[in-house]
Write a structure and sequence with these properties.
Transferase(Phosphotransferase), domain 1; globular; two-stranded antiparallel sheet; 6 strands
């Protein structure tokens, strides 16, 4: 007998596409779900021996516990990383709308196939739209195609879920969108690894939490310190010397 953990919040797919009235999902929660899922996939790719390729990454295979902590599930299409050509699968498995185009052409499941599928999950988190819309015109049925076209003409905001449209969050949203675009690159070798995706999501989260934690180049730092210097001098007598080369970044004298 297998005893599974109780998952009161069902799947990410259900949470996104079958939302009850008044039950919105904040951007912070969406970010946390994305990061949890990315770290789980990165663990499969880099911390297991041999590596494991999930093969069917999608919102329906991401479970959410009572705290909306994401848990990647369903390994029916998973494989151990092949060590030679003979070990590659010859039958494409997965879910339409999430499948890596390169995998469909070559029948070779790789770690970058999971990256592509995860990119589609990021789109669901940003837009709350179905991955395939069979009621739309043929050229607009695929969410990934619509997204890439929107990014090309700077109309990504038209696809965003209204629940997360906010001027204050737009920088964070666009960074996630840019990451999704990188994951959806048609060439697998040009996509980031799942470890890089997880690290970038962590950086984006810290950008929102600690905006001063962003890396600045020396010219930007000097400009910021000059502004501080002039503001202080304008209000107080005496002088302030800012020495960029000293061990202490700011030396104050009287």
């Amino acid at each position: 007998m297998l005893v599974y953990e109780f998952i009161p919040n069902s799947t990410l797919f259900h949470r996104i596409h079958n939302k009850k009235q008044g039950s919105c999902i904040s951007l912070a929660t969406r970010q946390r779900i994305a990061q949890d899922s990315a770290e789980a996939l990165a663990y499969l790719h880099f911390s297991t021996s041999p590596s494991i390729f999930h093969g069917d990454v999608k919102s329906a295979n991401i479970l959410l516990d009572q705290n909306c902590t994401a848990k990647v599930s369903d390994f029916g299409a998973s494989i151990l990383a092949p060590t030679d050509e003979a070990q590659f699968v010859t039958l494409v498995q997965g879910t339409y709308g999430y499948l890596d185009p390169e995998y469909m052409q070559s029948c070779k499941l790789t770690d970058k196939s999971d990256v592509y599928s995860f990119g589609v999950v990021l789109l669901e988190l940003l837009t709350s739209k179905p991955v395939i819309d069979f009621d739309a015109p043929e050229e607009e049925r695929s969410l990934s195609s619509r997204f890439l076209c929107a990014m090309e003409v700077n109309k990504m905001q038209d696809l965003l879920d209204n629940e997360i449209k906010c001027e204050d969050d737009m920088e964070v949203i666009m960074k996630i969108a840019k990451l999704a675009k990188e994951c959806l690159n048609m060439k697998g070798e040009q996509r980031p690894t799942m470890k890089e995706v997880a690290e970038e999501l962590d950086r984006i989260k810290k950008l929102k939490q600690h905006p001063w934690g962003v890396e600045y180049n020396p010219e930007e730092i000097e400009t910021l310190l000059d502004e501080v210097y002039h503001n202080i001098v304008g209000e107080h007598s005496g002088y302030f010397h800012i020495d960029m080369e000293a061990e202490e970044s700011i030396a104050v004298g009287r």
